[in-house]
Amino acid sequence: MQGQRGEDSLSFVAQTIDFAPYAGPPPLEAQVLSQFVHEVLAGAVSLESLCLAPAQLSWVLYVDVYVLNHAGNLTDACALAAVAALHHLRLPKMSEITGDGSLPTIETARAVPLQLKTLPVAVSYGQFNDTLLTDPTVEEEALLNATVTVVEDALNTEQGGQKSLLKVVQPSPASTAVALGGNTLSVSHLQQCCAQAITRAAHVKVLLDATDT
Q1: Which of 3, 21, 38, 93 could form a disulfide with 14 if both were Cys (CB 3.0 to 4.6 A apart)?
Q2: Rounded distance, CA 199 to CA 49, Å?
Q3: Burial of 211 (0-12, 13-18, 19+ CB in 10 A)
């Protein structure tokens, strides 16, 4: 389990990734995947908004991702599942804390959305020879020469460019190209991935908003 704490040391967001027995054995990169999802969620939630009374009372969020089937591109699937859960989360309003030692009451009829500072959407690409593949399957992943994951802020895609780009995940860069398992993803391909990821993130936000209750 990995997580992040607020400044009051009480607000907390933790996430775990587990695999169903029939989903097959966890891939070797399972720990890397868990770390990636943790990094995607870091900074997305306003931990200050989880604090009900400084150093006294705060919400603690647990995000559990359960993999039912491994058909490829677990990176995007797990990240999107976690982000969607937070996007759809509603926290009940709490009565005012009086300071007389009495516990506040929960007002379930006044549930409010979780405050998100960003809405990170991960979009992964694979390169086979000189062809870029979006959302590669598990069979395709075994044949890829290189991979890269672009994380865009779906709340800021209209701005595009550096304003919406949150993260680019890849092995160590090598001068003007990106080194990936002994191969390279050209700068032009990387720019193409970033541009397409903006469109994808905007589309994902439309879908999340449409299913928001």
Answers
A1: 3
A2: 29
A3: exposed
Q: Tell me how far apart the alpha carbons of residues 46 and 8 are, in angstroms, rounded to a whole number.
A: 13
Q: Which residues contact 83 (CB under 8 A, 6 or more apart)?
A: 40, 41, 44, 119, 120, 121
How far apart CA 32 and CA 135 sit, in angstroms, is 18
Tell me which DSSP letter residue 96 carries. Answer: P
pLDDT of residue 8: 55
Alpha-carbon distance values, 129 to 121, 178, 183, 184, 192 (Å): 26, 15, 10, 10, 16
Residue among 146, 142, 114 nearest 129 (CA): 146
Tens digits of per-residue pLDDT, 1-21?
554 555 555 677 888 888 888
Contact predicate 16/28, CB 8 Å: no
Locate tokens 């075994």: which residue? Answer: 142
d(CA 78, CA 75): 6
| pTM over the 0.90 mark | no
The partner residues of 134 in beta bridges, in order of sequence, read 125
Tell me the pLDDT tens digit for each residue of 24-45. 777 777 788 888 999 899 889 9
Contacts of 130 (CB under 8 A, 6+ apart): none
Write the single-letter amino acid at 15.
Q
